Amino acid sequence: MPKTLAQKLWDAHVVRVAPGEPDLLYVDLHLVHEVTSPQAFEGLRLAGRRVRRPDLSLATMDHNVPTQGGMRAADESSRRQMELLAENCRREGIPLYQIGSRRQGIVHVIGPELGLTQPGMLIVCGDSHTSTHGAFGALAFGIGTSEVELVLATQCLPQKRLGDLAVTITGELPLGVTAKDIVLSLIGQTGTSLGQAHLVEYRGSTIGGLSMEGRMTICNMSIEWGAKAGMVAPDDTTFAYLQGRPSAPKGAAWEAALDHWRSLSSDTDAEFDGEISVDASRLEPHVTWGTNPGQVAPVTGRVPEPRSDTDERALRYMDLLPGTAFADIAVDRVFIGSCTNARIEDLRAAASVIKGKHVHPRVRAMVVPGSTSVKQAAEDEGLDLVFKAAGFEWRNAGCSMCLGMNPDILAPGERCASTSNRNFEGRQGSGGRTHLMSPPMAAAAAVTGHLVDVRELI
Amino acid sequence: MAPLDRADVDTDQIIPKQFLKRIERTGYGPFLFFDWRADGNFVLDKPEHAGSSVLVTGANFGCGSSREHAPWALRDFGFKAIISPSFADIFLANCYKTGLLAVTLPERQVRHLIDLASEDPTASVTVDLDKQEVRGEGFSYRFEIDAFARECLLGGLDEIGLVERNEPDIAAFESRRPAWLPAVK
Lengths: 458, 185
Known about the structure:
The structure holds 2 protein chains of 2 kinds.
Chain A: H1 5-11, E1 14-16, E2 23-26, E3 29-32, H2 38-47, E4 57-60, H3 76-92, E5 96-97, H4 107-113, E6 122-125, E7 139-142, H5 145-154, E8 156-159, E9 163-170, H6 179-190, E10 198-203, H7 205-209, H8 212-220, E11 229-231, H9 236-242, H10 251-261, E12 274-279, E13 286-288, E14 296-298, H11 309-318, E15 333-336, H12 344-354, E16 364-367, H13 372-381, H14 383-390, E17 393-394, E18 415-418, E19 433-436, H15 439-448
Chain B: E1 2-4, H1 11-14, H2 34-38, E2 54-57, H3 69-77, E3 81-84, H4 89-98, E4 101-104, H5 107-119, E5 126-128, E6 133-136, E7 139-142, H6 147-155, H7 159-164, H8 167-176
Parallel strand pairs in B: 1-2, 2-3, 3-4
Antiparallel strand pairs in B: 5-6, 6-7
């Protein structure tokens, strides 16, 4: 029977099936961070359990870390959470990249760049954006703290089988339009919950033409339309990205892995429970106007008339009137960062827009590389100088203003052009207003001081 | 029964990020819907809904962040069951682990319950997990729930203990894993 990629990945990880029970799956890599793990480690300790496979676990500090000033800049409870992670990792023998480590960074940025994220793997993390790793042809999804405890103890996870969706994206991306615009436009089309209880495969010529960074951006936001996981079948782009990375297989092991990886795609006749098509050649740069990622529109348009109570509430929170041209919306802050858009390619794209220009005097703009390695790579290319010369703050790696669990937050009423993934009420700081967009679009907003079509600047 | 007549309620609203810095599993109740309650006149703070153990709300409840702190906060506040037309996947899993019953009912029945709770705050409902129904005066709505999740909720099973019983299968699986798979150094 023909299988989808997701079914192949699922079947390859089944430890045990029993009627009436969820499948028991084996986890190849468990990523751990400071915020969703303390109670899990505590639970283990109280039950007298140990971590089964510390060698298949990796911890980093990202949510709470200050992006300047180091550990000393963290508030007391953040510091306590980070110290507790270090203590738990030490006791259980889990490798940890803490503040100051050259490998520290956002958990979904460091897995791929270390070559730990590979095709065919099952990867989990106590974080909803774990779907990012699906870009490599892995089955990857977020879990809660009780499940974190379960995986620490057993390296396994009981999961009910899910449905399959295919999103086929074809056509050449127009200039100034990015992977972020593909996924924002998709969520505008699907709404925030169509993907519920489904594993999604992104495919088609446009996906094939995207870099790994672009594929990660799309898989990252799968959760924003409700999907459990998003994935892309691995191809030569995937293999080229992985080859030579610290944890990628070497020599004969590389050849063996490659043979297996090439088998990881949906069979021609495989059936999906639903299919969605996107014509990328007609896309424009997108911006969100509301308080969920499905409230989104092309930047060339205007704030729409509300069609529901949710829309009305969103417009009130965002302090926007229907009919306002997006280009007339001034911003106070610009944030380029997050697990969605803080990889080297994202920083290059943003830098190319601002080169030789300056941040608008009313705007405070910052760039937060996704990892310490990304920061180093950007500095090796001189991108930091481009950003600094334009008036951007150049920070250390972390989740930063994507979720405001660290000193980087919006003040109440501030409006931000952000490359992150969620525009929920208060997400970037209580009372803050978030417009999601691509890195080039955020860079353009920084320069002009308002939402703007980046194509006017390039 | 308390009505929260909003769709797409995300976990950032249920428990804002500043309360995720705690390292305990309990004590989140006072911070439930913190920003919305700070705005004043929030439905859960109305005296007529004090002490409610059932929350009835709009579709896609619990979307967004995977934080299990969201069901912890709902439980600590006093809720035992949440009724909605649909729940986000991770939130739903977290509810079962927390002992919070998430009940999915058709939009029309949820609308009835929201209207009922809004118009008559004294109206009470019984959420019966054993019989899989939501009952009130003049109505009874059947709901479906995953059999295994139901058993876990009813029996309070130690899921880690259950998985550990499969040790021979787990060890056998580990011995079959391809050699090229990475270990963290």
